[in-house]
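Appendix B, Record 12. Input sequence as logged:
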Amino acid sequence: MKIKLTAYLTSLALLSSAAVALPRALPSAPVSQAAGKLEVVHRFYGHMPIGVTVNSQGRMFVSYPNWEDDVPFSIAEIKGGREVPYPNRAINTRDLSKPDTTFIGVQGLLVDARDRLWVLDTGTRNLGPILDQRAVKLVGIDTHTNEVVKTIHFPADVALKNTYLNDLRIDLRQGTGGVAYITDSGPRAARG
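Logged structural output:
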């Protein structure tokens, strides 16, 4: 799936899957080459984090999917060794009566080159079908102001009932207007 970004992501386009030719042999790298010392940044207990991303000031953001365990929040910022709901508790309070403004089932997240945190809400629970079409969305949050700056909802002909949008990459190169690439790993997403 490919989404065209203009200013703060404004339009939507579907990208079909295509085979990509890979080189027959990849160059080998020395296995024993030192790359630096590993350091524990944060330890997680309880709920399973899935995504992690960091902005230019070193602020770390983490996502928790709404799978088997009932997560207390979908997005957290690691602050002072604690996981704090981000950008606030209200958007992280799953509310099926407000699926367009609260996180339902987040997995993918990414900070772009402009320090906007993009949060991909699958709109699902426990890898099941979409609970409400308004829940499937891409939410942009300015990490300098901690405010939601854009929400893109996916129509039913793009995010099908069995769609599972789980990962994204953002391309802000000149001339593209900005593009979001989104993975749909739903088992029957192409058939609906």
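The first strand starts at residue 2 and ends at 4.
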